[in-house]
Every structure is written in C-alpha cells, then in structure tokens.
Amino acid sequence: LPIHLRNAVLPICPGEDxxxxxxxxxxSPGLLKATLPLKKVYKIKHLRLNCGILPSVxxxxxxxxxxxxxxxxxxxxxxxxxxxxxxxxxxxxLSTPAVSSRIDKLEKNGYIKGYTAVIDRNALGFSITAFINxxxxxxxxxVFYQFISTCPNVIECNCVTGKFSMLIKVAFRSTMELDGFIxxxxxxxxxxxxxxxxxxxxxxxxxxxxx
Length: 211
Fold this sequence. Notes:
four-stranded antiparallel beta sheet, three-stranded antiparallel beta sheet, 6 helices, 18% strand, disordered N terminus
C-alpha cells in the first residue's frame, strides 16, 4: 500500500477501525488510496475486491445493516436536519455524493421517516401542555383513532397498558380550551384523568442508534 485502482475510490477515515469484507463492488470513479495494513491479499477483477480489509465507512449499506458511519449520520441529522451535505461529509470522512447516497438509503430503508422543525409552542401562544389519560373500550378504538387523528391540538397519542388505554399529549392556549376538549373526550369515549405540565426537564430528543 498505497493501492491504486483505476476508476475506483475508497475513502479512508483516519483512525477508522478496519472491517473484514469478503466481497464488495466499488462503483465510484476516482482513485483508491489506502494506508491500512494488509492481512489478506487483494485480488482485483472487474473492480471487485474479493478479499481484503475495508474501513467500516463502506460496510453498512453494502452489507444491508447500519455501520458506525450510518449511526453517526442519523445522530447528526437528529441534532440538526439542516446540516449541509458538505458538513456531514466532513464529519464522517466521506465525499458529499457518498453521504447523499447513504442518506437516500437510510430514508428508503425506513430508518429516517422524515424531517420536521422544532418550534417553541410558548412563543406561539400554546402555553398549556397536558397529558390526558383516557379509557377507551377495545370496540371503540377504530372510532377513537379516526377522531383523535383530526384533532389539531393533539401532539401525540399512544395506546398504553394500565387502567387507561390511551395517553394523549395536547397543547392549548388556555385551560378553558383544554377543559372543552376534555369534555368532548368524556362525552364520546369515557373517563379521563389529566395532568398539566408545569415544566419540562428533558425536551423531546432523538435516540442514539448505538445504544
């Protein structure tokens, strides 16, 4: 090493641990340069590496699983989905097209469901946040789900274990509006129990895929 392959590229991230990949096709144009110690002989045929050590930055999607680079991209996008491709590429030691391709695959495979803006509800006047526990009989769930999905003040609704079958998170401008909504739930579906939020110690945040 270094190894040079015509019409192939292998980006190497300094300090990246190497993974043994038995078979990988390199499709990107460019130049392969590596400084990793060889443990097995590279056999080159039609731009395929039949055996060799490759960095894990190429391992994930080729092997149909998440690698450390995919996990880092997910964490970065959860922190700020508006990071530029150039910035993301710098963080994971890949080219911009390679990062774009990885994100496309993460979206296609369902790891990334979408992107949204985090707003300050208080700044918009929705100063009342509450959790409503609601009893809904099993036979009433289809009607309830149809109703709750159309309620604009509902932030989240989960079917849970325990005495109450539904846990609903809502935001309103006043307790009067909240009281009116609770009245609708009680009239149409059943008993409720409500907790109004005083403060939030941990705001909604992303999950670390590496856990």
